[in-house]
Amino acid sequence: MNDKSVEKICNALDKFKIELPSWGFANTGTRFGKFIQAAAATTIEDKFSDAAQVHTFTGACPTLALHVQWDLPHGLKDVPEVEKLAKRFGIRPGSINPNIFQNQEYKYGSLGNPDPAIRRTATRHILECVAIADALASRDVSPWFADGSNYPGTQNIRTRIRYFEEGLAEVHTALKPGQRLLIEYKPFEPAFYHTDIADWGMALLLAKKAGPQSFVLVDTGHHYQAQNIEQIVAWLLHQNMMGGFHFNDRRYADDDLTLGSIDPYQIFRIFHEIRLFEWETQSTADIAYMVDQSHNLKGKIEAMIQTACTAQELYARAVLVDHERLSKLQESCSLVDAEETLRGAFWEDVRPAIREWRKSRSLPEDPLQAFRSGGYLERITQERKVKNSGAGGAYA
Ligand code: RM4
Ligand code: MN
Ligand code: MN
């Protein structure tokens, strides 16, 4: 690889940051049960501390997404504590995620619930999240709605669209200048007949209707098999509606596997669409890159370091695509050469260039190795094991 390519990668990596999810450090499981890890985070302090490890060794993850009910159980009252932790660990609070799916009252939905009192409760919670985001100087409020129904005929799909339009519009009016509302979609689970915000088209229409500070959030695991995700990304970029990502990989459904573990070419193609857009428009796409993964079996901090490094590798490959050349080949319909231009970048070994970048930024060349020899994992395993041994893993 020539010096110019290395320099291009280094400059791009300086700007490429990826947000970690607080819930990725806690004990999580499948719907059949949890496997408890002795070193898992059980408090918000643990989560900040673990995230700081990932950032220390990768230099790529300066922010932590928070799930309000899990991380700020007392809402706004917990803001000073979170601020203190953010300062102490050198990690900024990232996107604020409302929880409108876990409480008993949300059995039949939140903003789409036929009961107006429950719709109010949900709206109030999201409004509090907007206030929390404001207090923490976090830009993005990022709700995911589990709303839907399990059987045909049991809910009025169009009435619920209206409820969503009303609820989201109300939330939008509370946004401060600069804040954004990111609307996430998901085709199924937990609802198995219809989900109120099932795909990018529904999310896009709702975001447009809510107001100019709403954008769409693409969770890479929230698509049907074989769906062309990079095409969705290209459309959202074209519409200036691409707000952020929840990165993860999947083999079957919403598996939340490590980014790029199943299909690295897919993630590369997404990054390519973004880089191409940026080259054509001579602008930087204002996108929040976030991870939404919870590792049930892998060590959580190690898996997050692996994820951040994988994201950098796939992003760096997309940086190498020769846009000028590719555009000409596309125009002349030189199919094989165009495809080879894209594929060629994908097959470049960018790891030496990334090591260069790390060295020149005083980061360890091998973040995973550096974490392992740092002694942190042994220490927290000792400190947390008693607490974690009391955690229940049962499904029923
Ligand atoms: C959902 C979705 C959301 C996440 C929850 C916990 O499947 O991906 O983003 O907040 O899980
Ligand atoms: Mn998600
Ligand atoms: Mn998900």
Task: Provide keyphrases for this structure.
396 residues, alpha/beta, five-stranded parallel β-sheet, three-stranded parallel β-sheet, binds beta-L-rhamnopyranose
Can you walk through the features of this model?
With 396 residues, the protein is α/β, with parallel strands linked by helices. Helices cover 48% and strands 11% of the residues. It is built from 15 helices and twelve strands. The protein has a five-stranded parallel sheet. Helix 9 links the parallel strand 11 and strand 12. Helix 2 crosses helix 14, helix 5 runs parallel beside helix 6 and helix 10 packs antiparallel against helix 14. The longest helix is centred in the first third of the chain and has 20 residues. The protein is globular and about 60 Å long. The N and C termini lie far apart (55 Å). The structure holds beta-L-rhamnopyranose and manganese (II) ion (2 copies). The site of beta-L-rhamnopyranose has 8 residues, from loops.
Hetero compounds: beta-L-rhamnopyranose, manganese (II) ion
Secondary structure category: alpha/beta
Rg over CA atoms, rounded to whole Å, is 21 Å
Percentage of residues assigned to helices: 40-55%
Count of helices? 15
Which descriptor suits the 3D outline? globular
Order of helices and strands: HEEEHEHHEHEEHEEHEHEHEHHHHHH
Uncertain ranges: none
The overall pLDDT, averaged over residues, is: 97
How would you summarize the topology of this molecule?
Layout lengths: L2 H13 L4 E2 L7 E2 L2 E2 L9 H15 L4 E5 H4 L7 H11 L2 E6 L18 H20 L4 E2 L6 E2 L7 H18 L5 E5 L9 E2 L4 H11 L3 E6 L9 H10 L3 E6 L16 H18 L6 E4 L8 H20 L3 H9 L3 H12 L4 H10 L6 H7 L2 H14 L7
Parallel strand pairs: 1-4, 4-5, 6-8, 8-10, 10-11, 11-12
Antiparallel strand pairs: 2-3, 7-9
Helix pairs in contact: 1-10, 1-13, 2-4, 2-10, 2-14, 5-6, 6-7, 8-9, 9-10, 10-14, 11-12
Bound molecules: beta-L-rhamnopyranose (RM4) and manganese (II) ion (2 copies).
